[in-house]
Amino acid sequence: MVSTAAKAGIAVVVVLAVICLIVVGMFNSFVGLDQNVQSKWSEVGNQYQRQADLIPNLVSTISSSVSVETKFVKDVVAARTSWQSAATELDKDKAGVDMTNGLVAFVNAVAENYPVLQANKQYVALTDELSGTQNRIAVARGNYITAIQGFNTAVKMFPGNVFAGMFGFSEKQYYQATLSSMTTPVLGNGTLPT
Fold it and tell me: Distance between CA atoms of 42 and 30, rounded to whole angstroms?
């Protein structure tokens, strides 16, 4: 027969084991949610990288077909360089928006001044790819916002709020659109990004 003291000891061990499992589960949950947020932001950066990778091809295609004003080329290349050298998420996003706006201005100026480019299959393909990339950036930002919402909900709801503070997890800032990122870019072929 098991003594009362032994039963009490077993009960304490079981309660402690359950508490440990809950704490470990909560910690792992926060780590998973945090990694999801980071992954979603990484996808935003990945799409900006895709856009940055299109710039040399676009400039080369346009320059080989027409004599382009160097101001536009310099502005687009400078925006790309600024994006590549940005250190923080906020700086990366701001530079990415500037890069997008510079590309749209470049494509629009070229399309207006050189309508012959509309017959260039490579130019049309690149502008279509640019439009698709701009759409992917918007989708990636939406996924990032959704990931932050999941994380913040877990951090603020009981009992997560207790454990989040213990583990050093705090609410994350939502994506904040800048004024320049709220305008809808229209490419030179008259289409909105798809």
Answer: 18
SS3 content of the chain, % helix, strand, coil (to 5): 80, 0, 20
Q: Is 20 part of any domain? A: no
Q: Looking up tokens 């250190």, which residue turns up?
A: 87
Integer Cα distance of 194 and 137 in angstroms: 11
Tell me which residue of 36, 182, 61 sits closest to 127, measured CA to CA.
Answer: 61
- Residue 190 inside a domain? The answer is no
Q: Whose structure tokens read 């402690």?
A: 16
**Tens of pLDDT along the chain (194 residues)?**
778 988 899 999 999 999 999 999 999 999 999 999 999 999 999 999 999 999 888 888 887 777 666 677 788 888 899 999 999 888 888 899 989 888 888 888 887 877 877 788 888 898 899 989 999 999 999 999 999 999 999 999 998 999 999 999 999 988 876 544 444 444 544 443 33
Instruction: Give the Cα separation of 99 and 79 in Å (integer).
Output: 5
| Contact residues for 58 (Cβ-Cβ < 8 A; gap 6+) | 76, 103, 106, 107, 123, 126, 127, 130
CATH number, domain with residue 106: 1.20.1440.20
Q: How many domains does the chain have?
A: 1
